[in-house]
Amino acid sequence: MRFADANSEPTGTPSTSRPVTRRRTMARLLGVAALLATTALGGLGIGAAPARAEDEIRIGVIYPLTGAAASTGVELKAAAELAAAIINKEIPAPAGLVAGVGMPHMKGAKIRLVFGDHQGNPQVGATEAERLITSEKVAALAGAYFSNVTATASQVAERYGVPFLNGESSSATLTQRHFKWFFRTTPHDDLFVTNFFTFLEDMEKKTGDKLRTVGLFNENTLWGNETTKLQVKLAADRKFDIAEKIVYPAKTTQMTSEVQRLKASKPAVIMQSSYLGDAILSMKTYKELGFLPKMLLANDAGFNDSEFLKTMGKDGEFVISREVWALDQADRNPLIRQVNDLMKQRSGVDFNGNSARAFTAIAVLADAIDRAGATTPDAIRKALQETDIPATGLIMPWKGVKFDADGQNELGQGLIVQVQNGQYATVWPFDVATKPVVYPMPAWDGR
Question: Which InterPro entries does its entry note (predicted)?
Answer without folding.
Answer: BCAA_transport, Leu-bd, Peripla_BP_I
